[in-house]
Structure formats: structure tokens, C-alpha cells
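agent> call fold_tool(seq_1)
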Amino acid sequence: MDRVQWLSSGLPHDLPGIEIGPLDRPILGRPAFSVSYVDHLDQAGLREKYALHPGVSGERIPEIDFVIGADGLKGAVGAEAGRFHYLLASHVIEHLPNPVGWLADACHLLADEGRVVLAVPDHRYCFDALRRTTTAGEWVEAALSGHTRPSPGRVFDALSNEVKYNDTIAWDAEADATLYRRSRTAHTALDIARRVLESGEYFDVHCWTFTPASFCNLMRDLVLAGLVDFALDAITPSHGCEFLVRLSKMPDESRSLRAATFPASGGHYNRLPAGFDALAYCRLNPDVAAALVDPNDHYLEYGVREGRRWQ
């Protein structure tokens, strides 16, 4: 799979869009794309930060159009609604203290049917391998608490479980867990988390961890809760240490229809028939589409017994 081609596929070249965190390797180049670059520092700040980093070419870091500060994405880019047609972010969402708020900002900035395109690390193939996957409730807590920086708990969890495998921080295949080596002790991680709390500093970590399946299950819950107005266009299996996601802004579709675009898997969803199509189930059963329910749950709880069609 051509990663850059997948991430840029279908994005309009002549309409305004955003790429977050391009550093020295933008996925969407100018002038081929009418793209604005967004980062946490301006060009000079990024060049200074990465001056000694062997893998980053300071000369290739482009001009940054918008710098994200305490006011978040919408505050940095501006409050004009529907101005952009896509937002691309590679290995960003796992760092965000409040992904629900970030997605709300993206929804505000995007035109209807605008896209959010993401490259997301699969925790099983990188230094997050010992961590469990993030739950929807953890995102809800961050949103309702208004987190603007990684919480001490997120910092501790990330640092205390960080591992290397064969002296690398990422890999592209199932690894022998007996060869994982922790980067630090739990005591050291706690000291850092305590310092972060007392100082109020922004300490960057992977706040969240995913697999393709867990990401879809999490997003489906948030759509049904009314916190996310995106539907899933496409998601890839993991390649190397990441998977790729394409979301579309669809605020006028019912929650059940948007939720149906995110495949359900694991746990009791293994009882679904092979090839179960939740979107078709909604369309064939308008009462399900109109309700604030997960169509997968509805089928298991009622649809089977009632003989409802899904194909």
C-alpha cells in the first residue's frame, strides 16, 4: 500500500485544507495542494527544537500558517465555520489531551462532507505494546473535564508501560513479548507525573492507544452519545505500526446511521452473523435508523428474534 497516496486520495487540490504537524515531510505539498500547515510551534521554533535531531531536516520544515496554543485548533485557525474541506493529521490523535474537543473543532472548521484523514499508531506494534486500548469513557472524561494537557494519569500510564523490542520503539509484526524491555520503573514514572502536576507543564505522551477494531468501537459509542458528528469512510488494516482512517462530516445524518459506518467487533459482537451490514440494517429498518441506538446491539437484542432483514 502506498501510504501517501491513500492519505491524499480524494482530497481536492484546489480547495483549502489543513495538514497538522507536517514537520519536514508534509504529506500534502504546496503548491500542488491549497493546504495550510498547523503545528504547536512556528517554523523557527520547530527548527530550533529539532536542530540536533538526526532524523529531521530543519531546512525542509515549511512555513507554519497557524500555531496551536491554549485555545486549541479552532482558536488557532479562526472561528469561521466551514472554511476548509479536509484536515489531515499523521500520528497526532494519540497525543491529544481532549480528542472529542479536537474533533468538534475539526467539525466546525470543515464544510459539510469535509474529511478528517488520520494515520494512527497501532499500540501492538510500538512502545505502547503493554498498554490496554483506550475506552470511550476515557475520552468522555477528558472532554467533560476540559483537559488541555495530558493528565498525570495519562503521563504515568504512558511512561510506566513504555517498552522497546529488539532495541527499537516500533515494529511491524507480532513481537515476542518476553523480549519487551521497559524504559523506566513505575517509581520514576510516578515522580515525573507528580512533577508535571505540580509544575503545570505540558508533558507530551501518547495519551491514548488503539487498534483498528478498538478505534471503531470507541468512535461508535461517541457518535451515539452525540459527541462526534463524523461517519467512517474507510479504515485500513494495520500496515507496519499504523493504520489509516478517513472520516466524513455528516451532522445531518442520524446517529444510528453514522454509528453503523463503524464496524463492530469483539466481545458480544462476535455473535453477529458473518458479513453483518449495520448500515444496510438501518436502511432496511427505518425505526432503527431514527433511534439513538447501536444497530449492532439492536440486531442482537431484537432483530434476530423479530426476523429483521440486514441484507
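agent> call fold_tool(seq_2)
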Amino acid sequence: MKHSAWATAALAVSASVVIAACGSSTSSAPSASGTTSSPAAGGSAAAAGKTLGCMVTDTGGIDDRSFNASAWAGMQAAQQASSNISVKYLQSTTQADYVPNINTFIGQKCGIIVTVGFLMGDATQAAAKAHPTQKFAIVDFSYTPPLPNVNALLFDTAQDGFQGGYLAAGMTKTGKVATFGGQKLPTVTIYMDGFYDGVQYYNQKHGKNVQVLGWNEKTQNGSFTGDFTNQTKGQTLTQTFISEGADIIFPVAGNVGLGAAKAVQQADAAAGSQKVNMMWVDVDGCVSAPQYCKYFITSVQKGIVAAVSTAVTSTANGSFKGGNYIGTLANGGVALAPFHDFDSKVPAALKNELAQVKAGIVDGSITIATKSPV
């Protein structure tokens, strides 16, 4: 299917970075294949003695180059890890599709139903409570108290977002950086909080005054495009930030970020030399959007591939456990991606400081105000 090529690359990079995040039993990153069931495949794999893993996307779609695509890559990783697993997905076009898509998969007797995105929290909870023997996993949402039949997968992206902000502050030439979100959701603003605070920490350590456009962690006010699909909005907003002097942009907006990348590319062409760059979110942008890799200083990642794969494989091998998982820098569930084309451009001293910042976050000597929204 259309997405399989991206998924293969995502598995090779994202899974290898964070495959240990959830204690996965796979020793290396598997590759996706074209044998994955399509949404139209129909029927349950139970009759063939297999565990059927079923995924419901959020409205960003299977090819969002972000959390939906990463979750699907995790589903495919589980299928590749075991011949007893087959996977399929249903795509949600609007939020009204959540409940019927989940119910369709309940009717197909899926071994586990994986739902993707904060906005699916209520629909997943209602289905889990109505069907207590059905196993679920959800990406970017958790429950208080935890639900015994839901493996809730959350990621403390304020931690690597903090590193991203520190890096941006160290790399800016104009003294202005920017971030924006798709929708104002906790799983979006946690990235932006971390980014903002990382810039402030750099300013404190270096006596600088790097400004953050698009978000204020203290007031919780900032810029959002309103969805995760409209690339034109991302392009327009990024052009505004660039006109205001920002030379590093951090979109937290799924496919909308491609519009930001287009604006950065256009600014580069207009300047005649590379003066504006950016960071990608959720996955390694040089894998998911390689055409813009030259502009990605790094990507602020979360280990969705490994977490989803583990949820599905644990269902197949009988070790499924409900409750809340939180990916952190300490357990490898969040991380900065490699610098790729910027490896020689990021000063060695700044790389050393980033390592110190990571160690400080892990050992608690650096306190991050924003916590994973459990």
C-alpha cells in the first residue's frame, strides 16, 4: 500500500532508537512488507489461529508522517515480529468516525484495538468499559484510574522538547525561534512547553535573550492552525514567523508541518543561502520527509513505533497488561533524532551541553515544570 515504503524506513530508524522503550522482545528493527492487511480485508484472523491487531487512525490519516504513521509502523513491526500476528487499520476522516470504526473492529473480534490520538480518549474509554474482555491500546492518552483492558501509551515529550529548545537557542543567528501547534491539546502543548523552557534555560546559562514566537509556557497562549492536515495554514503561519525574524521553526502539527517546511524552503531560495531551518516532531523528519532533510537540525521524537509494537506482540503472546506507560528520556521512550546534515554544523560544545542537559533531566537536577499529562 502507499504507506509501506515510509513505514519500512520509519522502522529502520525510529524503532532502532527507541525499541527498548517498552521492553520489546525484538532484538532489531524489523521491516514492513506489502503483505499487511488493508482496511478492506474484512474478517477476523482468529480463525487462522492468529492475533488480529486493528488500528483506528485519527483524522490526520495513515500518512500524516507523525503519530498515525508511527503507530501504523508499530503495527507492522508487530506483524513482522511474529507469523501469528496480522494487522489492519480503519481511517477516521472526522471525529464522528471514531465510534463506528471502533465498533467495526469489536465486531471483527480483533485481539487488540489500537486507537491513535488524544481526541480518541473518550471513545476508547467508552468502548473499553462496555467490552471489558476486549483489549485496547491508545496512543497519546491515559486514564485515571488506569483501565485494566487498555494499554495507555503516553510520552513525556516536555523532556526532549526541552533539549530541542536548548538546541534551537544555541543555533539561532537572529535571536528568535518559533513554535506552533496543530490543535491546542495537552499532547501538543507539552512539546511546546518543553521547547519554550529549554530556550529559557539556555538564556539563563548563557546570559542571552533568545525569544520564542508562537508560544508562552507561562500564559499557555500561542499559535495554532486548528488541525493537523492543512499545510497551507502551516506555510502561512511559518512565513509570518520568518517575517518577524525567527530563523528556527518547530511545528507540532503532523502533516501541517510540511507546509512549514515549504515556507522554510522558499525562504532559503529567496535568501540565496540557508538562513532559516527547523525541527520536526514525533519521528525523524529526515526519514518521514527526506525532501526537506537539509533544513532539519534534528527531530523531537517519541517512541510510538516500539510502544505500539510491544502492545500488539504482548497481546499475541499472552502477556498483555493494561495501565499507563510513560516514555521518558530515561527509558528511551523520547529522544532527539540524529543531526544528519547538521552534524558538522552543531558545535561540539553545544553537543556536550545537550548531553549534560539530558543527564540533568534524567537525574532530576534539571526540573521541567510541565509533566506528561497523565
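agent> summarizing second result for user.
Residues 59 and 95 are 7 Å apart (CA to CA). The chain has two domains: 4-156+304-327, 157-301+334-363.
agent> awaiting next instruction.
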